[in-house]
Amino acid sequence: MSESTPSERGSVDYASLDPSCFSIVMATGIVSIASVYVGAAGSWLSMVSLALLWINVSVFALQIVLTGVRVLRSFPRVIADLFDHKRAFGFFSMVAASAVLGGQFLLIADLPGVALTLWCFAAALWLAFTYLIFTCVTIMRNKPSLNDGLHGGWLLAVVATQSVSILGVLCVEFVEFRDLMLFVSLALWLSGGMLYVLIISLIFYRYCFGAIDVESMSPPYWINMGAMAISTLAGTTLIEAAHSSPLLTQILPFMKGMSLLCWSTATWWIPLLVMLGLWRHVFQRKKLEYDLRYWSIVFPLGMYSVSTRGVSQAMDVHLLDQLSTLFAYIALAAWLLTSVGLGRHLVRSFYRSRERSAPYSRAAGEDSC
User: Fold this and answer.
1) Tens digit of each residue's pLDDT (9 = 90 or more) over 281-329
2) CA–CA distance from 48 to each of 11, 40, 41, 45, 294 (Å)?
3) Please, what sign has the CA dihedral across residues 328, 332, 335, 341?
4) How far apart are CA 92 and CA 333, in angstroms?
5) What is the largest CA-CA distance in the chain?
6) How far apart are CA 121 and CA 95, in angstroms?
7) Cα-only R_g, the chain
8) How many alpha carbons lie under 13 Å from residue 208 in its C-beta half-sphere?
9) What is the pLDDT of residue 238?
10) Rounded distance, CA 226 to CA 230, Å?
């Protein structure tokens, strides 16, 4: 293995960029939306939601650029990721991030044109990634075992599907083909439910019958809950739009029942995930330090708040409003802690890179003398 040059050591490592990096946008976006639902107009929470929108725009733009550069400069590594059971499903974070950001533009900035553009972008990515990734992991020859290849990040396929469904319903009044948009959103909601049943069955089997260690019980398992929370929100969003569609009106009782099932399942997961987190960090003494995967905890917490608010409004169960508010504050606190961790990680990485490059700089100076 050849030794890298000083310039290479100081450059950005585009090749190893994690496909799930867009989880930061997902988490920031849903916390922003949760803040809108909890805070009254003009309150500090509404100001927070607006600030988070523009932070998200900057982060999303940066990640799009970095991903584009990676595709151009390290295309073989991108293709390799599509065949990697551990990394492939991270690409779905780009789909969900685009849809969540579109929801922010619509609900906070009142810019339906931008939201509709992001829906088209998210829908195109969803179509490409869904069939490309599942094809790649199916046809590859050397496959990992269930314990080595399966993790909670697989459920990003569900999250991406439901996010496109939700934004489609929110944008339906701004398009001429409303019936088609609602039908597609309904089909996506049902497809996401199908994917959840398939993937969670394997995950639960692994929980109960596979070997579990500290590393395998990583933060993305919170998507077990987050996938059901966003499925709840997709269902309640369709319920709210049922008055404008004869098809949705016919199946309204079914949608209400399925949405309550999704919310109940999301709620069931929370105590178990908390207990598993305590086992990991308290009893097994896993050190708490920044990891990109911790954004996979922030997003489900924010999504649970928003989905609970959706159940409250769509089914007139207002006793859930306080629960929604509580989780909005929990999600905001989790976002702040994770952001502080990211900031410290970036500062430390910067100083480490300077320390590594210092000997090369001194050597270059001596050579020039």
Assistant:
1) 888 888 878 788 889 999 999 999 999 999 999 998 889 999 999 999 9
2) 34, 12, 11, 5, 21
3) negative
4) 25
5) 84
6) 8
7) 22
8) 5
9) 97
10) 6
**What is the distance, to the nearest Å, from the Cα of residue 123 to the centroid of all Cα atoms in its chain?**
15
The Cα 155–Cα 40 span in angstroms is 33
53, two tokens = 């929108």
Three-state DSSP string of 124-193:
HHHHHHHHHHHHHHHHCCCCCCHHHHCCHHHHHHHHHHHHHHHHHHHCHHHCCCHHHHHHHHHHHHHHHH
CA distance 313 to 240: 9
CB 32 within 8 A of CB 49: yes
Question: What type of residue sits at position 326?
Answer: L
Q: How distant is the alpha carbon of residue 133 from its chain centre? A: 17
Which H helix or E strand runs over 305?
Answer: helix 295-315
Token representation of residue 335: 């976002």
Length of the chain: 369
What is the Cα–Cα distance from 1 to 8, expressed in whole angstroms? 14
Which residues does 194 contact at the CB level (< 8 Å), separation at least 6?
Answer: none
Q: Distance (Å, rounded) from C-alpha 299 to C-alpha 27? A: 4
